[in-house]
Amino acid sequence: MSSPLRIAIVGGGPGGLTVGLLLHRHGIKSTIFELRQKPTDEELAKPSGMLDLHEESGLAAIRECELYDQFLQLTGECSEAQKVSDKDGNIIHEDKGELSERPEISRHSLTKLLSSHVPAENIKYGCKLFSATSVTVLNGTETELDFGPNGKKRFDLVIGADGAWSQVRNMLSDIKPQYAGTQNISLTIRHITAKYPHLADFVGRGSFSALGSRHGVMSQRGPQDSARIYIFLTTPDEHFSTSVGLKGRPASAAKEPLLNNDELLGCFGTKIKELVTVACDEETKDKPGAALDIRPLYTLPIGVSWNHKPNATLIGDAAHLMCPWAGEGVNLAMWDSLLLAHAIIKADNISKDGNASFQSVLGPLMKEFEDEMFVRTKEKAEETYSNGQMLFGEDGAAAFRDFFQAAYAQMKGEES
């Protein structure tokens, strides 16, 4: 009788949770190792970024997890409507989401939905991975994970869902993320309708984008009647937060350097500056003593790949990190999880029915999965790069408006 499979998933984000849940539903145990401590229900109720799930990827995975009805109950806090304004705050495009069939869910809600259906004993929180190493054994190859104070553990298969700076990737490839030339500042205005009804009306019930001079101020509505504000700044300075003296300082400290510098948001209009001012002040009130959430964006090269190993693979940002300009990150991660789970389940069934080992059966199936992923994600990475060029050109607002108008014209043409 063969020994139980030893499968480790490093990373408890949507990708790692999805593959862990799909394996669990087919009677295959895996252990998810997550760096963060287990979040409380109170923490998961707080505003977080919104994710729109796509039919062929994120939604397909949700359906196969048998969670679609529960998922739908958690959507609606952010509509699929779009507003686009120029840098002066003039609305130049507005729709009600007629083109979209991509329901929005908060990252926290998605995490809670997926994790609540994975057995608690299958998720190990507070586990920092220091390294992953291939080890040759009598019957093939294993992966040894070094968790430092938490010891070393060996597995037949390790799935790296550990994000941009993946330790599992280091075992498969020497490719590192590259600075994408963009800084991101994240802020939150809670209860915006009650506190600032004019701003709530201005940004709308869905997504809002003010673009110009290669920068952007964007908003998404979310839990607690919040508006999550994202400021994207195009700059070659990877260490921008240190250079402008914002590292470690509160959000309110960002107003002066951002809004009084014409090379940043100083060239934006009064409405956008008010939105940024309020967001900085509200963030500081909500999180007194906390440092501004400002971080450089990174990306892996378009068309990234690695040499196949039967004992380890990557999904999500660990495999194909890209900027958020196409909304593909979580969708690609869940798509990866779905297809990888199919390969593992098939290998498990075949190995149980015959004399071949799990790894010998999985090897060709996993290579097929990876080869398909390389092609699929290269196409999405190219689309993401193209979208970034559109959004953060000198007149990104006009380019984004034209994008929507072309999409609507195509839709009308198909209907006629």
Automatic annotation (TrEMBL):
Q: Which Gene3D superfamilies match?
A: FAD/NAD(P)-binding domain (3.50.50.60)
Q: Where is the FAD-binding domain?
A: 7-236, 313-346
SUPFAM superfamilies associated with the record: FAD/NAD(P)-binding domain (SSF51905)
Keywords (alphabetical) are:
FAD, Flavoprotein, Monooxygenase, Oxidoreductase
Q: What top-level branch of life does the organism fall under? A: Eukaryota
Q: Name one GO molecular function term.
A: FAD binding
Please name one Pfam family that this protein belongs to. FAD_binding_3
Name used for this protein in its record: FAD-binding domain-containing protein
Q: What is the lineage of its organism?
A: Eukaryota, Fungi, Dikarya, Ascomycota, Pezizomycotina
